[in-house]
Amino acid sequence: MNETVDAGPMASVRLELRATAVSIAVGRAVLRRVVTFRDPDAESSFLIAFTEIMTNAVDEHVRLASDRPIVVEIEQTPHDLVRVNDSGAGMSDESLVTSAPDGSVERGRGLALARAFVDDIAFESSPSGTIVSLPLAGFGIIR
Amino acid sequence: MNETVDAGPMASVRLELRATAVSIAVGRAVLRRVVTFRDPDAESSFLIAFTEIMTNAVDEHVRLASDRPIVVEIEQTPHDLVRVNDSGAGMSDESLVTSAPDGSVERGRGLALARAFVDDIAFESSPSGTIVSLPLAGFGIIR
Amino acid sequence: MSAAGEPLRLSVSTSGDIGSPVAEIHVVGEFDRLQVVRFDETARTLPAALVSVTVDLTQTTIIDSAALGSLIRLRRTLERHGCSLQVVVERPFQITVMKVGGLDDHLNVRTPDQR
Amino acid sequence: MSAAGEPLRLSVSTSGDIGSPVAEIHVVGEFDRLQVVRFDETARTLPAALVSVTVDLTQTTIIDSAALGSLIRLRRTLERHGCSLQVVVERPFQITVMKVGGLDDHLNVRTPDQR
Ligand SMILES: Nc1ncnc2c1ncn2[C@@H]1O[C@H](COP(=O)(O)OP(=O)(O)O)[C@@H](O)[C@H]1O
Ligand SMILES: Nc1ncnc2c1ncn2[C@@H]1O[C@H](COP(=O)(O)OP(=O)(O)O)[C@@H](O)[C@H]1O
To answer: Which ipTM was obtained for this model?
Structure first.
């Protein structure tokens, strides 16, 4: 039993992406290829949650003018999940609890949508970045 | 002018993929999203060359039972190119010069196809791995 | 452009009486932030005389919060010209997006059988 | 399955006289190593009595060397039953693949106007 210092179990796919809108579409394209979704509605639902989380990561890197990549990991162990890692300043407690605005306010619905579609979404946030885990259970399986 | 030890200019996209056939399709899906190809024929031509190079990297990792990822980098500087890095044992000089067999032989056409489609393909091979560069000039540009 | 790009496809059709023209914007594919610019541009080309605009989202595969922002902007613009907006959704995820976004009333959301 | 998956689509049709039936396999999309298994399986379902099989590759977006290997296997199997094979390609990249692969003669490669 040789404990390795680095990496741990290899991600099925690890993506390092620049903070741009195209990167979000790239992430979706990879997920469509790597995950077999239960049905088209499960696919759209999961990919919308992923889109919102990626959008927030991109926004945060742009806000800080960070040139570090956003890292997306698609992992099979112990459960299939997608993880989005950014190097931002972390999320405030407030942003973690606020619900969607209604009516004519243009912004602020991202996290509410992500939560509505992926119940078991998990956030780990610190001043050096945020890791959001999106479990695939119920949506599909990694090929 | 601060020389950094690591990384250099960030790749537009960096992918770490397991040595499986699905990974090859994932790579193509990312390229289709990140590159604007000149026309459908340029797209197919480039993606076939990429497919052959990825297939060889996958075969080499499988042959060595390596659990290290195959790394695909899509880079904008100084010229748009796609780089496939494997951790195999390197290519023999012979395999670098052999041309395609004809007739009924089932294998051995991969490198010939890659070369035919991407003239400026470049190989850097050592006993610790192979890096194949596929310049995008003439095929398309990174978005 | 390959199928894998799955770009947004937008089509606009106008119909109705000379005195009360209506328009329909049909959105197909990924309606996300990357495509919102094109939707906004298309919306700007709508004739000012319209009395009603319908946005048909039934064939989208993605509707994100940036798309919702775009629809809210469209409603605001149309309102200024006294034009009404209705948004048509059908698939479960599309209905969820509108409900969670709190926009069922504001965007006058309908399913195809309610049109 | 979403458009982005762009899976291979295969269809087989048979026609011709009772005494001399012919089959056509129509391949659409990415004909690569990932899909070769399905092509091989489909090829195995062909009736033994055929006198000629045409593989139409004009609607493929990828043909890789594994696909060429699969076509070579198909030709070998058909030969055993005295059945001929022809492969149809049209787009420039498809013609290049067959030429570079050295298979123009061996696989009896044609363009649609030469059929
Ligand atoms: N990864 C993140 N890093 C830092 N802050 C974040 C992150 N994700 C979300 N936030 C904060 O939470 C707020 C609410 O996000 P969201 O609900 O997606 O709405 P919007 O992005 O439209 O403001 C954001 O404005 C931002 O301040
Ligand atoms: N990345 C690589 N690492 C090690 N060997 C390689 C690599 N790429 C190609 N080769 C060698 O070159 C040979 C020829 O490759 P190719 O023309 O693609 O045909 P095939 O893969 O069908 O044998 C391979 O069989 C392999 O021995």
So the answer is: 0.79
User: Quick one: pLDDT at residue A7?
Assistant: 36
What is the C-alpha to C-alpha distance for residues B72 and B25, in angstroms, rounded to an integer? 12
Ligand nearest to the CA of C101: 1
Got the DSSP string for A39-50?
SHHHHHHHHHHH
Q: Max CA-CA distance within chain A? A: 59
Q: How confident is the model at residue B10 (pLDDT cuts 50, 70, 90)?
A: low
The one-letter code for the residue type at D88 is: V
D32 min Cα distance to partner chain A (Å):
15
Which residues in A lie closer than 8 A to residue D5 (C-beta atoms)?
32-33
- Residues of chain D with Cβ-Cβ distance to C61 below 8 Å are 2
Q: How confident is the model at residue C16 (pLDDT cuts 50, 70, 90)?
A: confident
SS3 label, residue C95: helix
Q: H-type helices in C48-108, by residue range?
A: 65-80, 92-100
H-helix or E-strand spanning residue D12? strand D9-16
Closest CA to B121 of B53, B56, B64: B53
Inter-axis angle of helices C33-44 and A21-34, to 10 degrees? 120
Cβ proximity of C7 and C1 under 8 Å:
yes
Q: What is the phi/psi pair of residue B139, to 5°?
A: -100, -40
The CA-CA-CA angle for residues D77, D79, D84, to 5°, reads 115
D61, closest residue in chain C (CA to CA): C2
Give the pLDDT confidence of D19-50 residue by residue, as tens digits: 788 999 999 999 999 889 889 998 888 888 89
Distance from CA of A14 to the nearest CA of B (A): 5
| pLDDT higher than threshold 50 for residue B87 | yes
Confidence check: pLDDT of B2 > 50: no
Per-residue pLDDT tens digits of chain D, which is 115 residues long: 333 345 668 888 888 777 788 999 999 999 999 889 889 998 888 888 899 999 999 999 999 999 999 999 999 999 998 999 999 999 999 999 999 999 999 999 999 998 7
The three-class DSSP label of residue B136 is coil
Q: Say which residues have a Cβ less than 8 Å from residue C65's Cβ, sequence separation at least 6.
A: A52, A55, A107, A108, A109, A110, A113, C101
Identify which of A120, A123, A122 has the alpha carbon closest to the alpha carbon of residue A88. A123
Question: Torsion over CA of B98, B100, B102 and B106, rounded to 10 degrees?
Answer: 100
The residue with tokens 């973690």 is: A96
pTM above 0.90, yes or no: no
